[in-house]
Write a structure and sequence with these properties.
It is a single chain. With about 260 residues, the chain is an alpha/beta fold. It has 2 domains: about 40 residues; about 200 residues, no CATH class. Helix content is about 15%, strand content about 30%. It has a 7-stranded mixed sheet with strand order 1-7-9-6-14-15-4. The chain has a 5-stranded antiparallel sheet with strand order 3-2-5-11-10, with no helix packed on it. The chain has a 3-stranded mixed sheet with strand order 8-12-13, with no helix packed on it. It is globular and about 40 Å long.
């Protein structure tokens, strides 16, 4: 190879490298952008104040010891895969959205949902009602005012009182509801199973029940329940405006198989 040929080859090689390098840098920038594009965004709600009274129907609950521990598998749910504004029924390792008709076996199950922690001035809570009768189920409506005592289904003053560590049974009642919240491990009616920022994933486990006609006296294990179906409604006032807004009321029919 003579001197002229060597110069031409060196110039050609240098030009080729200068063309390739910018493409690699552009590709690296694209990869960084793709990595961060799916980062979840959570919105914080405004806080107001709410007052509520309780119906004391749980005098006999002190005699019942309930295992409210969660297995390791219960802790594995990924909060980013859930729909934070939805409510779930959990049984046998499976979570299902509360809507339409849900089939369960006659064994323990849980209600799961997201909410903020209960504070003295921002009383975030959920209100759960269960009934045997569809006529009672239809009374739960969008637009209802909940700080008016005359509006029975989820109104203040109709919450069922519970022991300090939460409810020991599921109450089937025409008017009362379960008042569910989580303030701390000492003051709670729910079990905390996950957390991200200010969102808490909470669990209400159901092992026992009492039907209204029993007048609060008879507590039974869920395996012995005689009814074949019931109706469930849960209201979560996340903006604390004392109104059942669209997206805050969840209802379903539960059928035992």
């Amino acid at each position: 190879m003579n001197y002229r040929t060597t110069i031409i080859f060196f110039i050609s090689l240098t030009f080729s490298q200068s063309c390739v390098t910018p493409k690699l840098q552009k590709s690296e920038k694209i990869q960084v952008k793709e990595k961060n594009k799916d980062k979840p965004v959570l919105l914080k709600q405004e806080s107001n104040t709410r007052e509520t009274n309780n119906l004391d129907l749980s005098k006999n609950d002190k005699e019942i010891n309930q295992d409210d521990t969660l297995s390791e598998n219960d802790m594995l749910s990924n909060i980013y895969n859930d729909k934070i504004d939805e409510v779930y029924i959990y049984q046998n390792g499976e979570e299902r959205l509360i809507k339409g008709e849900i089939k369960l076996t006659k064994s323990k199950f849980s209600i799961r949902f997201y909410n903020y922690a209960y504070l003295d001035k921002s009383r975030y809570n959920a209100r759960l009602r269960v009934t045997q009768y569809k006529r009672d189920f239809k009374k739960n409506k969008i637009g209802a005012i909940t700080n008016d005592l005359s509006n029975v289904p989820f109104s203040d003053g109709w919450g069922i009182e519970a022991p300090s560590n939460g409810y020991k049974r599921l109450w089937f009642m025409e008017k009362g509801y379960h008042y569910l919240y989580y303030k701390s491990e000492v003051d709670r009616r729910l079990t905390l199973i996950d957390k991200v920022d200010e969102w808490l994933k909470l669990d209400f486990e159901i092992n026992n029940f009492t039907i209204d006609k029993d007048k609060g006296g008879s507590l039974n294990v869920i395996e012995d329940i005689l009814i074949d179906q019931f109706y469930l409604a849960i209201y979560i006032d996340r903006n604390l405006n004392n109104t059942i807004d669209k997206g805050e009321l969840f209802k379903c029919k539960v059928v035992f198989r």
